[in-house]
Amino acid sequence: MNGFSTEEDSRDGPMSQTCCLVDDGERCQRPAGNASFSKRIQKSISQKKLKLEIDRSVRHLYICDFHKNFIQSVRNKRKRKGSDDEGGDSPEHDAETPEVDLFQLQVNTLRRYKRHYKLQTRPGLNKAQLAETISRHFRTITVNEKDTLTYFIYMVKTNKSKLDQKTENASG
After folding, report:
1. How far is CA 52 from CA 18, 58, 118, 132, in A?
2. How many other CB atoms are found less than 10 A from the CB of residue 86?
3. Interacting residues of 158 by C-beta distance below 8 A, sequence separation 6+
4. Is the separation of the CB atoms in 82 and 94 below 8 Å?
5. Is residue 161 a contact partner of residue 69, using CB atoms and an 8 Å limit?
6. What is the pLDDT of residues 81-91, one digit of tens each?
7. What are the respective helix, strand and coil percentages of the chain, to the nearest 5?
């Protein structure tokens, strides 16, 4: 589902509509962004006991950027498993971990990611389901920040890229 309940609603796009959420009993009047209210968001809201609910009288599922960021920040405050850093279990560390919105990527890009990492999924996933599956995988990838930053700075200073190294190795 693309956030709309009818084809007529989809012609105007999300920007001509207001957020579909009711915040502490009061309907949000901010303009809707392109983020859709999903079961995952609903689960986050109920787990964190937030006073947010969907206005059942609206004919779309788009939420404003304010509520999108608010829900993401609340979701990011949970403790992550398997962190290698000393501060990995502290709430301050988790709040600094950015949430990557893979839904903004094109479907072909998501499929390439899935193929590259050989992720097993059922056939026929829509964009939202594919982005959700890839997000779960993406969060499990561990990165050695010190090595990555060192390598990045080296590449910037030498004005090279990883692709340059592959072509040099192939020709040399």
Report:
1. 15, 15, 37, 22
2. 8
3. none
4. no
5. no
6. 444 444 444 44
7. 50, 10, 40
